[in-house]
Amino acid sequence: MDYEPVIGLEVHAELQTRSKMFCACPVVDLTTAEPNTAVCEVCAAMPGTLPVINERAVDYALRVALALECQIRPVSVFARKNYFYPDLPKGYQISQYELPLAQHGRLWIRTSQGERAVRVRRVHLEEDTGKLTHVQKDGQAYSLVDLNRAGVPLLEIVSEPDMHSVEEVRAYATGLRQLLRYLGVNSGDMEKGVIRFEANVSVRPKGSDRLGTRVEIKNLNSFRALEESVAYEIQRQIAVLEAGGQVEQQTLGWDEARRRTVPQRSKEEAHDYRYFPEPDLPPLQVDEDWLARVRAELPELPHARYRRMRAQYGLSDYEADLLTAEKAVADYFEAVAARAQAQGVPVKTVVNWVTGELFALLNRHGRAADDIPVPAEHLADLLALLHKGALNKQAAQKVLAAMFTQGGTPEALMDALGLRQVSDAGQIQAWVDEVLAAHPAEVQKYLAGKESVLNWLFGQVMRRARGRANPQVVRQALKDALERRRAEP
């Protein structure tokens, strides 16, 4: 029997606010900050303290909800989610349940099967938990808690079970991360755990419209873990059904070492959390003026930018994906293209140099896409010099490398490095004559029919010119000089 996977994702994304969700404690980098230094009476749940909603966190949540085409509730309510969190001092989490901030949205994805939308069920705000570290010392086991993250604003984005392959899961997860980065609400740094995935997976006979028993895979913090765990679970469930068994509803973890899912506990339902309205927080009200302001501040979104840039610049699917994957790269490319095209440079040249030479330098030097040290106008001017023949490609690569590592304008570096291209016919003819005079045996081989020698002689001329000679002029002058010798009696 053929089976069809049915997959939904819950994504938890920390919001890049300066303070926590319900108090004024700063949001700090867990990888560098000393443990338990960003904690106050409110996030430590001291008696008599009251939470206050972080307006900026709501602003960021609205950005995401609008970008996902969600319906925004004018009134939403925070609730207490009662569940034992050893790393959340209150012993419950402030979240949203029955009346979330937004519902009924969608995210467009692209796969090998084309474009389609994955529905988004809900978007709601909550607070993050602290961080537990388990250690062994002197034969004893200890659990250490760091509350710096407790209370950090967290956005939960829940999809409908609309995905049916690992490829679609990856496309949705990467697309959502890209959107969050475009909106400036989340860094997307997976290693720091600022985005975490939970996958709900079931399988059913192909063609059936009934959902199978689902499991939830918790706390996946990398795309590889997400893909591998979903793929493993699909095959595990199919094997159970093929053997005549039944899939048990439960919560699973992903064992990186053994590359398999492992049971953690039986799956809770909503009633197990005993939600009830948070008595210390009033309902959150979002009026039309607030929504209009947030909507006006939205940037061009990734899916729309992909379509526009592909059409405007004649990009291939691959090129459009590369150039729009990061907002910083898309902005940089368009700035270079605008200035370069105004100087007569074909846009294809800009595409090739940004995705080729510039990306290679970023990789080589370990620089991020939003940390390009070459100003867009300098790269555009360099490509204009190349297009006009003031530089050849090899020299332009050297100038770009110098701009990348030491800064400076292309004109100044070109002259400082002695790389200005020589197109003077007389000078090039003199270099050609010198090379032919120095290598008479190779000249005779060419004249005897070994035309591959031409490339070797071309290299010698370029070496004599220290790479500054115009290659087209050199090649033509070399051919003409050799043919004159062929014609001699």
How would you describe what is shown here?
The protein is 41% helix and 21% strand. The protein has 15 helices and 16 strands. The protein has helices at 55-67, 166-182, 223-242, 288-297, 302-313, 317-324, 327-342, 347-365, 376-388, 393-406, 410-416, 425-438, 440-447, 453-464, 471-487, and strands spanning 3-14, 71-72, 75-76, 78-82, 92-96, 102-111, 114-127, 131-137, 140-146, 153-159, 195-205, 215-220, 250-255, 260-266, 276-277, 284-285. Strands 2-6-7-10-1-11-12-13-14 form a 9-stranded mixed sheet. Strands 5-4-15 form a 3-stranded antiparallel sheet, with no helix packed on it. A two-stranded antiparallel sheet has the order 3-16. The longest helix has 20 residues, at 223-242. The N and C termini lie far apart (83 Å). The mean pLDDT is 93.
What is the helix fraction of residues, given as a range? Answer: 40-55%
Poorly predicted regions: none
List how many beta strands DSSP finds. 16
Number of helices: 15
Shape: elongated
Strand content: 15-25%
Quaternary structure type:
single chain
Total domain modules: 3
Determine Rg (CA atoms, Å).
31 Å
The pLDDT mean sits at: 93
Largest β-sheet summary? 9 strands, mixed
Structural class: alpha+beta
Spatial separation of the terminal alpha carbons? 83 Å
Strands ordered across the widest β-sheet: 2-6-7-10-1-11-12-13-14
In brief, what are we looking at here?
This protein has 489 residues and is of the alpha+beta class.
SSE blueprint and pairings:
Elements lengths: L2 E12 L40 H13 L3 E2 L2 E2 L1 E5 L9 E5 L5 E10 L2 E14 L3 E7 L2 E7 L6 E7 L6 H17 L12 E11 L9 E6 L2 H20 L7 E6 L4 E7 L9 E2 L6 E2 L2 H10 L4 H12 L3 H8 L2 H16 L4 H19 L10 H13 L4 H14 L3 H7 L8 H14 L1 H8 L5 H12 L6 H17 L2
